[in-house]
Amino acid sequence: xxxxxxxxxxxxxxxxxxxxxxxxxxxxxxxxxxxxxxxxxxxxxxxxxxxxxxxxxxxxxxxxxxxxxxxxxxxxxxxxxxxxxxxxxxxxxxxxxxxxxxxxxxxxxxxxxxxxxxxxxxxxxxxxxxxxxxxxxxxxxxxxxxxxxxxxxxxxxxxxxxxxxxxxxxxxxxxxxxxxxxxxxxxxxxxxxxxxxxxxxxxxxxxxxxxxxxxxxxxxxxxxxxxxxxxxxxxxxxxxxxxxxxxxxxxxxxxxxxxxxxxxxxxxxxxxxxxxxxxxxxxxxxxxxxxxxxxxxxxxxxxxxxxxxxxxxxxxxxxxxxxxxxxxxxxxxxxxxxxxxxxxxxxxxxxxxxxxxxxxxxxxxxxxxxxxxxxxxxxxxxxxxxxxxxxxxxxxxxxxxxxxxxxxxxxxxxxxxxxxxxxxxxxxxxxxxxxxxxxxxxxxxxxxxxxxxxxxxxxxxxxxxxxxxxxxxxxxxxxx
Amino acid sequence: xxxxxxxxxxxxxxxxxxxxxxxxxxxxxxxxxxxxxxxxxxxxxxxxxxxxxxxxxxxxxxxxxxxxxxxxxxxxxxxxxxxxxxxxxxxxxxxxxxxxxxxxxxxxxxxxxxxxxxxxxxxxxx
Lengths: 480, 126
Prior knowledge:
The complex is a heterodimer. By secondary structure, chain A is an alpha+beta fold. Chain A has one domain (6-479): tRNA-splicing ligase RtcB. Chain A has helices at residues 31-37, 42-49, 108-112, 115-125, 141-150, 152-157, 163-166, 185-191, 216-222, 238-258, 276-311, 315-318, 391-396, 411-417, 423-429, 439-444, 453-462, and strands at residues 6-9, 12-15, 25-28, 55-66, 73-80, 85-86, 98-107, 204-213, 228-235, 271-272, 321-327, 329-338, 341-350, 353-354, 373-376, 384-389, 400-401, 433-436, 466-479. In chain A, strands 7, 8, 9, 11, 15, 16, 18 and 19 form an eight-stranded mixed beta sheet that branches. In chain A, helix 5 (141-150) packs across helix 11. The longest helix of chain A has 36 residues, at 276-311. By secondary structure, chain B is an alpha+beta fold. Chain B has one domain (2-125): Archease domain (Archease, Possible Chaperone, Chain: A, domain 1, 3-Layer(bab) Sandwich). In chain B, a hairpin with a 2-residue loop joins strand 6 (110-114) and strand 7 (117-125). In chain B, helix 1 (10-26) runs parallel beside helix 2 (46-64). Classes of the chains: A alpha+beta, B alpha+beta. The interface between A and B is medium-sized, with 36 and 27 residues.
């Protein structure tokens, strides 16, 4: 059935309530994006999410929306504590997939002479690729349970980073309420040797330069300057998170029957937030999310070591200060104002980033007056952006905005588009060194496979959800 | 990414779905297996069983390094499956996989039998 759409303004589209929908849909997109979107099933997925019990406000999609499994990628939905549900499909398999950004004291020019050895060393130091695991580091069962409970703090307490890092991670690098006892043996087994690995697909490590500052005042507050060398890390909870999602989809499938929840798609299976199944999922999801925080923290530490070795400088001189770390696949309890009153909501963000506005108490003190940093990676040939959350996000999207560029081509179509080309050589001609475990991944991740991230963040800014602060251009890309 | 498979029997359907997954992971390379892993799985219905079967292949690949090559189903009745996966050690044979499959999803999952022919559709999260 075609999805009915009503245009609200230049960047907002309503999917009117009909059939089993309990609320309307709200999509943030330009006209051009919407034309492309109508060719795929993502809008139908926005409509499907609107049928879930206890949804508060509209079922939303950010401008990087594309077809996912169950929930669309770029989807945001909030559920009330009493009537609402939690759905593993609203978080995704890669629980707490996220991005972190570090800023060095180096100028891009200083990197040019060591670009190649740095790329090689980073590629050797950080395992990437399909099923990547560390041969030098394997968690004992006891250590793994601590990681699941403590997140990035576990890594920092063992010398992988500093206390200051923890202040610059969403939730301080550990989501409260995590229960490692709810994680299956299979998930634990998958997680044991993957801490400190990037993985494959769209995950990456990038060394970038600050190409353009849009908001000098905010950039200064964040510690960003023109031509500065930065590092971004995009990865999540690896096989452990995939297994937790898989395990709980089975539980939720039964729970959906038990609680009489009608589902338009089985991937949306869910349980009431107040039910034992719902509470267990949130506690297991928090544990997997903490593993992801620790994963990015370990990689951060090894990146700092690689930089120190190549530049022959101490880590204090290089700084590589953590600007911020955001989750973009998560469900979290948050307080939001709905129709003038404060409500405790479970906000699902699947391929969407928290974007709290200036003044929010959960923003690190140093950034509180400018808003929460929002890290939006693009594709490996173009650019990424740093934004800060704006008031509009608190008013309309439960403090959320987009998470990336959003796929335009399927992996198959991207591979076909890359046939007969050498994407690594093409990027090298632009001054971007790519190190990748798999040629197939590089082909599937070519720039044309993604929307132009500049278009996506423009919609976010013009819709009032965030403010663009800086643009980053890749210099080194490590892919799986 | 979606997979579609067919078969004259439910067992053949499951073998063909596993071969499709193998192609996603490895391309169309010809590999001769020298390891075998016996598999026995429960399921509420044939759809849950299919997700469990394909997920088992991914689990063994990631945790035991078993690169899947060939598949056999001895018994299958929609509630239980017994069979084996033949493969190679990813590390010892230095096998480079084409791509990572995160999981086998329930999205638009279907297993059906029409006029004696079994068909399945399943989506993978990459």
